[in-house]
Amino acid sequence: MVIKVLGYLIHEDAMLQHGLKNGIGTDENIYARSSTIDNSFLDIAARGGVLGHARWVCVNVRGELRRCIALANNDRDDLLSLPPREQIDQLKAILNTKAEPKWYLYD
């Protein structure tokens, strides 16, 4: 079975910049940078109302690994159910997008 996730692609650099701008972390070394990116995801998920309903995962887009805020998946062994529409709309507002989430190959 091919596992897919439904979510939004997010560039790691955009997450890093979000963290730096909001005082969430630093980029002084690779570990601090990684922590800042992860904590930025937590901040965006919390403000977007999907914390606890979303995961920060890697997906495969045309052979390239990308990061994604996953809102649901089709994995019967580790199911991530789609949050309510209100929460998706709140996340869309935080991400400043009108686009609906898309399906991506989980990697």
From TrEMBL:
Which superkingdom? Eukaryota
Q: Would you tell me the protein name for this molecule?
A: Uncharacterized protein
